[in-house]
Structure formats: structure tokens, C-alpha cells
Amino acid sequence: MSKTASVALAPSASLLARFLAAVDRFLMASAEISNHNGDLPRFGL
């Protein structure tokens, strides 16, 4: 009997997931700036 074990690693984030995360960070930063200026933030693209 083999005494080795294999561990399944989660696949790295796809390029699309990284892009969507970057867009999300940008939109959140834009909303925070608008909030600090007293404006209503624009939602979405």
C-alpha cells in the first residue's frame, strides 16, 4: 500500500476573474471618492 497522499490544489484565478476584481476595485474607489465629495456615486459601467 502506498503511503503517499495527493492534495488537490485549487486552480489559480482565471484572467477573467482577475479582470472583474480589478473593475470592482475601480468602481468601489470611484464610489468612495464620490461619497467624500458629497455626490451620488454612479453605479455600474
Question: What does the model show?
Answer:
51% of the residues lie in helices and 0% in strands. It is built from one helix and no strands. It is rod-shaped. By secondary structure, it is an all-alpha fold.
Approximate strand percentage: under 5%
Please trace the helix and strand order, writing H or E for each element.
H
Average residue pLDDT: 77
Question: What level of helicity do the residues show?
Answer: 40-55%
Helix count from the secondary structure assignment: 1
Distance between the termini: 57 Å
Q: Give the structural class.
A: mainly alpha
Residue ranges: pLDDT <50 for 5 or more in a row?
none
> What is the overall shape?
rod-shaped
What kind of sheet is the major sheet? none
- The radius of gyration is 20 Å
How many β-strand stretches? 0
Sum up the structure in keywords:
mainly alpha; 45 residues; rod-shaped; single chain
